[in-house]
Design goal:
Strand order of the largest sheet: 1-2
Order of helices and strands: HEHHHHHEHH
Strand content: under 5%
Amino acid sequence: MRRYLLVFGFGFALALIVGWVAFPRALYVSRQQPLDFYHKTHAEKSGLTQCDSCHVLGSDGTFSGIPRMEVCAGCHTDKLGTSQSEAVLVESYLKPARETPWLVYSRQPANVWFSHAIHTRRAGLACTDCHGNYGESDETRVYQQNRISSYSRDIWGHSISRLRRAPHDGMKMTDCESCHRRHKVEVGCLGCHQ
């Protein structure tokens, strides 16, 4: 009997290690952003401290997400700044009028509908309520992409068990549900899922 318990315990531990450690490492591939970008540096140098200074929420409620090239070109010229990333931005994207191919950490799954306007305008939530203090970041995080779904790891989280959370752990359905409960807002499945 002891031998069977020992074999079961060893097998169970091995399954946990493979499932929670080895599989996630094999599941995700790391990719670098096309440029280094530091929110903190941009806020300090430009004086733009509000998210909507660069990230536009349209009058119809649509959210542009990553700023278009014209927004960057408003501040960056071929004589501004001294960093290598800024030189690449100007030479590779601004002069030829090409959008920077940013890898989006928060692209939602195809079956999820989300409106920033409802949450920021109607509910009065601040960007930091969901996204954290991105405006204070002084690093360009590595983008981790799921090899199967092609979504960012931020969508599903860095810890399968959710026992520990990374600083940039994204928004999960459970986070949305708990926020709705706190604010006493009822939304059925079809309110967010298509």
